[in-house]
Amino acid sequence: MIEPLKYTVNYTTKQLVLPLDLGIILEKDSEVYTYLELMKGIKLEKYFGRESNIGRLPKNRVKIMNAIFFGYMIGFRSTRRLEEACRNDIRFMYLIEGINSPSHTLINNVMNEIKDKLDSLLLEINQEIMKREDIETDKLYIDGTKIEADANKYTFKWKKSILKFREKLYIKISKALPELNELFKGNGYKEIIEKEKYKPKEIKKIVNRLVGLIDCLGIKCVYGKGQRKDPIQRLYDTFKEYYEKLKEYEKDLEIIGPNRNSYAKTDHDATFMHMKEDHMRNAQLKPGYNVQIGVSNEYIMVIDAYQNGADHKTFKPILEKYNLMYNNYPKYPVADAGYGSYDNYSYCIEHNMELFQKYGLWAKERDSKFKKQIYKKENFKQDREGNYICPNNKKFIKQYDYESNYIEYPHTKTKYECLYCDRCRKKNKCTTAIGNRTISVLNGYQEMKDKVIENLDSELGIALRVQRSIQVEGAFGIIKEDMKFRRFTRITFSGIKLELNLIAIGYNLKKFHNKKFRTVN
Prior knowledge:
Layout: H1 31-39, H2 61-74, H3 79-88, H4 90-95, H5 104-114, H6 118-132, E1 139-148, E2 156-158, H7 159-186, H8 200-217, H9 231-256, E3 262-264, E4 271-274, E5 285-296, E6 299-306, H10 315-326, E7 332-335, H11 342-350, E8 356-357, H12 362-365, H13 368-371, E9 381-382, E10 388-389, E11 396-402, E12 413-418, H14 427-430, E13 438-442, H15 445-457, H16 459-482, H17 492-516
Parallel strand pairs: 1-7, 7-8
Antiparallel strand pairs: 1-5, 2-3, 4-5, 5-6, 9-10, 11-12, 12-13
Helix pairs in contact: 1-17, 2-17, 3-5, 6-17, 7-9, 8-9, 15-16
């Protein structure tokens, strides 16, 4: 006898309620309304390509993108958490207008579809904010922080080590050439000329020749314990190993590039840097990126990441990106002492920007203790002709002019030497040099620093310094503490820039909402 099919019934004593609009349940000051108000003028569909009419109908990308932006606005960054919110959170259900809840995989796919266009989206959202608020675009507060990459801390490659081992490999190749040339000479091949450096393709030719000799002479290659190799096979194995190592070194150097000294094996774009969070207290280097932001009126106007750990090398690129986005340079780019340099000051002057960036010794030179250190070059006096005078009233004589390899803009450095150090009783206090003391002066740099001091000590400069500390460092505080963003979850530049732009968009949306409902006590 065939038993009838049994159906499972989800029975509940609760009465079924069908609300006409989820918006009725939401609070009037909900973030959803602020989000919809701000995004009303932005057409997200233009950032997606046309969807094919063949096959299953895909879920609405625009609605999923709204869920992603809103999630970053309220601190939901995980794709799985966004998936759960779209299923259970009435704010998300109201936002996506009742479409089936997207999976975390689909949410991630939508992010990847639009990741190259997020710079434009950040700009468009900021322009919508600028329509509603008076943002001082002539003032940009710049700062940076190191954020750890999603890479293994111990899978590193160091440029200096690679160069050192490559030089040793060149020596090994040169030592093996006499035996190789003797073999080639006896079999009618041309001799290999000894060089200081070798390219992988040159070693590959040697390996191919040895393969031809092994085949021609009928040599059987043997491996393993107790086997005796033919001398030609030994040479083949040696040069094959050299070729593989040399090719590996060249590949590593290509990945590192000319402007950094290391990379992580599990994220080739990450560079090993000192992080502010040093839990082991041993100055351990970790793979990361130097994240730079520019803030105006509490909003992140521009954001980017760089491989260089020095902030002064990122000043020009971040301002160039700002100019590319907003088609103008800020009149007052304000930054701390990590950004002050001859190149950056020259760059500001070139683009009609004011000098409001501290230089390295700006704070120390204002300290009375520093001024009492008479043997510091910065405290030396000058005569009417501009010559430097040491504390013992001895003149430094100009020796020659030269250019530094570390400065990009046209410049001249002058070398001065005091010719009286051998007879000076205070030499031990003045210098540790065996001979006379020498100093180098970058011509024109002191005038730039004087202008910086004048600007920063003015009423406007004091106000800008205060606002820089509040706005840009406050932004990083919110990102790290409130948004809990202390480490990237994606790899390579394309992945981490996707995260950074979403963080900036979410930060600005949340800031706009908070300022909208901010009350003055």
